[in-house]
């Protein structure tokens, strides 16, 4: 059976890298990118591959089950890689319902559509759910998240992703949907919407705007280059056993303030500013409510069982990311006009 893979959220940050990898590496597959093009979806992320003969884009919302059914039929979908989601913690604090609709109900719509469409031969198919390490909640100063760590989400975003993971498992156990789940740490890289820490700070350093560090900047994240995440999804999708879950991470923990200082050092150098100039932009602002202290992934299982490991160091990845933003000012201008300004005001003006 020829593979016809539905990649949801393929116009977003991580999704666009997954789409590109699959379209270019597997010319024998049909890749159907399904995306509602919310504020975070952008077809400019895919201009280099949009005319590939094995690629199709469908503007569809996962909250519309009838349209999902049509897409499964039209393209004879054999597999799903599900990335469509509301993905930003701060927005989930402002509007939790959007996260409940898309991340939970949207995921169940997709599971239900796949279950009905694949019913005659379920075991020939695969539903790969792309999730986050934030479902595990927070760590103290020690320890790592493993695949057996109990779920303990603290934000509306992570609670909605945890719920979607549970529904994927339930559809696997109850109805026999062959699923795999990956829980990945914080991604960074080209095409990242400038609401998350790294692209927001890159944009603000370019424009000499304040860098709003939440609390004391002591929270810690484990950062992974987005292309390495796409490689991990490729690996798990093709090699993992049914009903397996894998944590994906870079063994690359950074306290926010140390990361901001590294970013400033690299950017001042690239922008020809005297070293450390942009440190004056650091502004400590009110902390995020429910702010998880530390995320750290133990990625031993995917490394030992499937042979995946990150391909770039943090400094290489960060340097390539900054170069991408400096070379793609038009992309940055497009995504920071209009509604972005409104969001920025709401999030940061009275912080
Ligand atoms: P993103 O916000 O950049 O992109 C999300 C995409 O989903 C956008 O293209 C958007 O248009 C689309 N979308 C949103 N709602 C939709 C709907 N109702 N119907 C159809 N399409 C819809 O997100 P991202 O950072 O690329 O994350 C992708 C996935 O990976 C998410 O599931 C997220 O939870 C997960 N994840 C993200 C990270 C990270 O660091 N960004 C880490 C681990 C896991
Ligand atoms: P973010 O990129 O939003 O990812 P997540 O919350 O999903 O980990 O934030 C990464 C870290 O940076 C997190 O500890 C919150 C912090 N942060 C700031 O200090 N200032 C900001 O403006 C943003 C967006 C994040």
TrEMBL record:
<dbReference type="GO" id="GO:0009225">
    <property type="term" value="P:nucleotide-sugar metabolic process"/>
</dbReference>
<keyword id="KW-0520">NAD</keyword>
<feature type="domain" description="NAD(P)-binding">
    <location>
        <begin position="6"/>
        <end position="319"/>
    </location>
</feature>
<dbReference type="InterPro" id="IPR036291">
    <property type="entry name" value="NAD(P)-bd_dom_sf"/>
</dbReference>
<keyword id="KW-0456">Lyase</keyword>
<comment type="similarity">
    <text>Belongs to the NAD(P)-dependent epimerase/dehydratase family. dTDP-glucose dehydratase subfamily.</text>
</comment>
<dbReference type="InterPro" id="IPR005888">
    <property type="entry name" value="dTDP_Gluc_deHydtase"/>
</dbReference>
<dbReference type="Pfam" id="PF16363">
    <property type="entry name" value="GDP_Man_Dehyd"/>
</dbReference>
<dbReference type="GO" id="GO:0008460">
    <property type="term" value="F:dTDP-glucose 4,6-dehydratase activity"/>
</dbReference>
<protein>
    <recommendedName>
        <fullName>dTDP-glucose 4,6-dehydratase</fullName>
        <ecNumber>4.2.1.46</ecNumber>
    </recommendedName>
</protein>
<dbReference type="InterPro" id="IPR016040">
    <property type="entry name" value="NAD(P)-bd_dom"/>
</dbReference>
